[in-house]
Amino acid sequence: MAKKLGVLVHGAGWVSTQHISAYNNNPHTEVVAVSSRKRASAQARADEAGLQNVGIYTNYQRALQHPGVDIVCVCTPQRYHAKNTIAAAEAGKHVVIEKPIANSPVEMRAMQRAVKKAKVRTIVSFVLRWNPLFETLKSMMAEDTIGDVYYVETDYQHDIASWWTGWDEARKKRTGVSAFITGGCHAIDALRWFAGKGEFEAATPVEVFAYSGGFRKGLKKEFDYIANKWVDGLPLEYDDLEVALVKFSNGAVGKVSVNYGCIMPYTFPLEVFGNKGTIKDNKVWSHKYPGQNSWVEIPSILPDSADVSHHPFQGQMDHFVECIQKRKESHANLDDAIITHEVAFAALECYKTKKPVKLPLRKR
What is the DSSP annotation of 30-80? Predict the structure, then answer.
């Protein structure tokens, strides 16, 4: 029997629970170490998952040297993702990178250089690519159900606030950067994913124009949608609403938004328009259904929850293990994720210049 791939989970926050669970459930992997800034946090994650005889570390460099580590999951706050990824690559480890991957284009390029030099595999947690509805729709699109895509809309609508344990880092301009970067990058990635016709194809953006606005920036009152009431909170240091128009190299056009000010539970609306049909969330109208007089509804799991336990991490990690075993690149690797993140950074540039921004961004 082939040796199992050893996994180090670095960072013991909310999302790390799903990384640990997914690798525990994969027959080809085992979690061999957990590291965090606080030993108690790392130990708690190991205990919750029933892990025994695993390394517990507060020093990341020592954790990277733990015997048998093949894969590193970077689950730390976003401002550490770049340096954690670079360190893992330099240690010769394959890397799972939580989104956002970095807080600047400079960091992204440094990560890219380190990964290419080390020749390791990467995957970025744009986990919705493995959502059952997304998988079904992409399969249908590849079979010409809606023809050639000419317009896509995706929206990340989530009242992110102090109820989230990561809020204090995410709300600050220095550590969170923007709403598109912190959370809305999921919607940008979905926009690219559905603008590409192939089952595992994401479209390439070539131009971005964006606006920002909203009402929450600087306010100390916030709406807690879980408790359904207004509460005192820590102020957001950037605009809570961003809207971008995106042109793609294949001729498609898209609109994507992130909205932290919505007074409602989490939603992730999706619309895809092709020259032979249309998708609206889990409803399809297609030239393939002669005599159709109503929307065909797909009974599937929708991307309608912000709870990480609802996200399809198992599919993502199983895919990554297969990529490592077969020595192939993931469609959601670091190179591809950089293309997604560049849309968010282009939006920030647009706010300054008031002009459309060409992609790819100038390398710095």
Answer: EEEEEE-SSHHHHHHHHHHTT--S-EEES-HHHHHTSTTEEEEEE-S-GGG
Map out the domains of the chain with their CATH numbers. Answer: 5-127+314-333 (3.40.50.720), 128-305+340-358 (3.30.360.10)
Q: What is the pLDDT of residue 226?
A: 87
Cβ atoms of 266 and 305 closer than 8 Å: yes
CA nearest 273: which of 180, 146, 166?
A: 146
Instruction: Give residue 1's pLDDT band: very low, low, confident or very high (50, 70, 90).
Output: low
122, containing H or E segment: strand 122-124
Q: What are phi and psi of 168, to 5 degrees?
A: -60, -35
What residue has token string 């898209």? 254
Prediction pTM value: 0.97
Buried b (16+ CB within 10 A) or exposed e, 275-306: eebbbebbebbbebeeeeeebeebeeebbeeb
Residue 19: closest CA among 36, 34, 5: 34
Cβ neighbours of 96 (radius 10 Å): 27
Distance CA 353, CA 182 (A): 22
